[in-house]
Specification:
Helix content is 26%, strand content 35%. It is an alpha+beta fold. Strand 7 and strand 8 form a beta hairpin. It is globular and about 45 Å long.
C-alpha cells in the first residue's frame, strides 16, 4: 500500500528574497525556520513548510539535492509514512520512473526525488521530517 499524507513543502521562486521574506513574515505572520541566504524556509504548521528561493541565486547553486526548477518547473514534497518508503521506491521503479536522488536528512528522515512527465521535481519525504524540524526549532 502507498499513501500520501499531505503536502510537506511547497516552493516559490522570488526575484527579491528579502522583500518576499518580509511579506510572508509581516503580512502572513509566518515564522522563519531557516534562512540560507539564497533560500528562506517558512513554518506553515507542524507538518509543512514554504520555501522561498532566490531565483537568480538558485541558478548558480551547487547542491547534491536536485534542482527544484525555477523556469516553468516546480517542486512539491509529499509526506509519506516512514514504513512505506521502500514500497514507494519499488512502485516508482515498477512504473519506470527514474529516481533522481535519495537524501538522508540530519533529522534521520529520508527523501526520494524524481521527476514528473513535465520535468517538475517531486519528492517523497517521511512525514516525521517537519515535526522533528519544528520540535527542534521550538525547543
Amino acid at each position: 500500500m502507498t499513501t500520501i499524507l499531505g503536502v510537506a513543502e511547497a516552493v516559490l521562486y522570488v526575484s527579491d528574497l528579502a522583500r518576499a521574506r518580509q511579506f510572508y513574515v509581516d503580512v502572513l505572520g509566518l515564522a522563519v525556520s531557516a534562512d540560507f541566504g539564497d533560500a528562506c524556509f517558512l513554518q506553515t504548521g507542524q507538518h509543512s513548510t514554504i520555501i522561498l528561493f532566490d531565483l537568480v541565486a538558485l541558478e548558480k547553486r551547487v547542491s547534491v539535492i536536485p534542482a527544484h526548477g525555477a523556469h516553468g518547473r516546480g517542486h512539491i514534497a509529499l509526506a509519506i509514512p516512514s514504513a512505506e518508503l521502500d514500497v514507494w521506491r519499488e512502485r516508482l521503479i515498477a512504473h519506470g520512473v527514474p529516481i533522481e536522488h535519495e537524501q538522508t536528512w540530519s533529522q534521520g528522515t529520508h527523501s526520494i526525488y524524481f521527476r514528473d512527465p513535465d520535468d517538475n521535481s517531486l519528492e517523497l519525504i517521511e512525514a516525521s521530517h517537519y515535526p522533528l524540524v519544528w520540535q527542534r526549532l521550538n525547543a
